[in-house]
Design goal:
Strand 2 (82-86) and strand 3 (89-95) form a beta hairpin. This protein is mostly beta strands and 161 residues long. The chain has two helices and nine strands. Helices cover 6% and strands 22% of the residues. It has a single domain (22-160), classed as Rieske Iron-sulfur Protein. The protein has helices at residues 31-34, 50-54; strands at residues 73-74, 82-86, 89-95, 98-103, 122-123, 130-131, 137-139, 151-154, 157-160. Keywords: 2Fe-2S, Iron, Iron-sulfur, Metal-binding, Signal. Residues 36-78 are annotated as: Disordered. It comes from Glycomyces terrestris.
Length: 161
Amino acid sequence: MTDSKTGSDLAQRVLASRRGLMCGLAGLGAAGALAACGTAEPPSGDSSSDADATTGGTSEGATGDAGGGAAIAATADVPEGGGIVVDDTVIVQPSADEFLAFSAACPHMGTPVNPPDADGVIICPNHGSEFSLEGELEKGPAETGLSPVEITVEDGQIFLA
Ligand code: FES
């Protein structure tokens, strides 16, 4: 069912395999999402929005609107080695098919962080704190890493857990 891992001191890591998490949504009433169980491929090409996602800005890349459990993004929207910001959530793909999410609120003073840059560094534009793709603090003034957000991934769609 849920293929999740808990990180050590940095953040709870939620590893979401494309297949392993679909049953976890049953309690959320994500009927539309569950209907897609068993299909593991993203719906479209992976490179169409990579550039947009890695070069800054906030993506509103949600593609699912199944009602109740709408997807917040498609896996194809999240570049490998990078990520996007959707609303108040940073979604990253540190390695192939590994998706993690964090609150976009900087732990220093709550400023929304930027999407990962070309080097995979998540930077807070307010005072310059930096975070890795795993949400680890790399540079202050923040004193902690980004707060994890649990997600599930199924059929190429990313959902809040
Ligand atoms: S609010 Fe992010 S570094 Fe200060």
